[in-house]
């Protein structure tokens, strides 16, 4: 996904719990409409179009330019810590407890991974089911890096107490290195993806997720992730678009790719996650906001 697609679909960044959805930072969008007319949509010009484009995806025309507001960020503390997937339930339970009171400067994802041995995948986690916590702790001011390390010291010790990690790469890093945190491949690939929003999981939800995608599930998915929400993700913006906040505790994502040998598309895996974990589909939430938000404002 490019920058434009990311912004018009809402945009969940590693800074989102502190600054909110990326679409809330958009100041103007230039778009070519179906009749060939180029318009610049802002809060004061073509306001309805500006509202719809921020979170409503790109079906309203061809976006040619976007102007965004910036925010200060001096450094990040980022990386990943991974364990054998046999420890998934206690790791998820302790992470969920921490998420309930986590500071907004921390934005994390807990991911069940089953990655093949490919370039860029560390040997310690390749070719085996693992569970890992990655994300970022923001350091907005250069004069205060220790505050970010204190957040890390609150987050990681309870997880390390469950079992010895296979790999731990959390450390202060340059902003550009944040792009490598998720271990995403450098080249595009064919994949199938499913995603939806979740409330607090509780012990039953964690058990259901591990049953659907854990090491004994038989799942053919490469990634099953829970993205921590809350914070500024939940507060919205007074002048936001169709999607200006996410009223959920987590964003769930399941991803698989077709095997080059003979395996089918990973639909059974993604369907199993959706069936086992009670959810609200993100697309349905967007549809309701389109139908209801403007009607209530009229």
What features would you describe in this structure?
With 298 residues, the protein is α+β, with helices and mostly antiparallel strands. The chain has two domains: 3-71, Uridine Diphospho-n-acetylenolpyruvylglucosamine Reductase, domain 3, CATH 3.30.465.10; 75-283, Vanillyl-alcohol Oxidase, Chain A, domain 3, CATH 3.40.462. 29% of the residues lie in helices and 24% in strands. It contains ten helices and eleven strands. Strands 4, 5, 6, 7, 8, 9, 10 and 11 form an eight-stranded antiparallel sheet that branches. The longest helix has 16 residues, at 282-297. The protein is globular, with a radius of gyration of 20 Å.
CATH architecture of the largest domain: 3-Layer(aba) Sandwich
CATH fold-level assignment of the largest domain: Vanillyl-alcohol Oxidase, Chain A, domain 3
Number of E-state strands:
11
Name the average pLDDT.
86
Described by the principal axes of the CA atoms, the overall outline is globular
Element-level helix/strand string: HHEEHEEHEEHHEEEHEHEHH
Q: Approximately how much beta-strand content do the residues carry? A: 15-25%
Number of helices: 10
Overall radius of gyration = 20 Å
């Amino acid at each position: 996904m490019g920058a434009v697609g990311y912004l018009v679909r809402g945009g969940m960044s590693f800074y989102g719990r502190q600054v909110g959805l990326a679409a809330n930072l958009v100041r103007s969008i230039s778009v070519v409409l179906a009749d060939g007319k180029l318009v610049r949509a802002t809060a004061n010009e073509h306001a309805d179009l500006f509202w719809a484009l921020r979170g409503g995806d790109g079906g309203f025309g061809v976006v040619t330019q976007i102007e965004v507001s910036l925010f200060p960020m001096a450094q990040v503390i980022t990386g990943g810590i991974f364990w054998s997937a046999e420890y998934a339930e206690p790791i998820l339970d302790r992470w969920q407890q921490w998420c309930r009171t986590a500071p907004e400067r921390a934005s994390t994802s807990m991911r069940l991974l089953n990655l093949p041995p490919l370039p860029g995948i560390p040997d310690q986690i390749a070719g085996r089911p693992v569970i890992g916590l990655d994300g970022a702790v923001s350091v907005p001011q250069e004069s205060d890096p220790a505050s970010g390390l204190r957040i890390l010291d609150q987050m990681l010790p309870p997880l390390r107490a469950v079992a010895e990690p296979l790999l731990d790469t959390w450390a202060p890093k340059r902003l550009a290195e944040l792009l490598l945190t998720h271990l995403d491949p450098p080249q595009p690939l064919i994949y199938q993806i499913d995603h939806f929003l979740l409330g607090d999981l509780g012990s039953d939800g964690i058990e259901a997720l591990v049953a659907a995608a854990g090491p004994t599930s038989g799942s053919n998915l490469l990634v099953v992730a829970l993205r921590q929400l809350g914070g500024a993700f939940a507060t919205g913006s007074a002048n936001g678009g169709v999607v200006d906040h996410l009223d959920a505790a987590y964003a769930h994502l399941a991803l698989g790719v077709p095997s080059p040998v003979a395996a089918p598309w990973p639909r059974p895996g993604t369907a199993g996650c959706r069936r086992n974990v009670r959810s609200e589909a993100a697309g349905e939430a967007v549809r309701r906001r389109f139908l209801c938000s403007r009607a209530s404002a009229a």
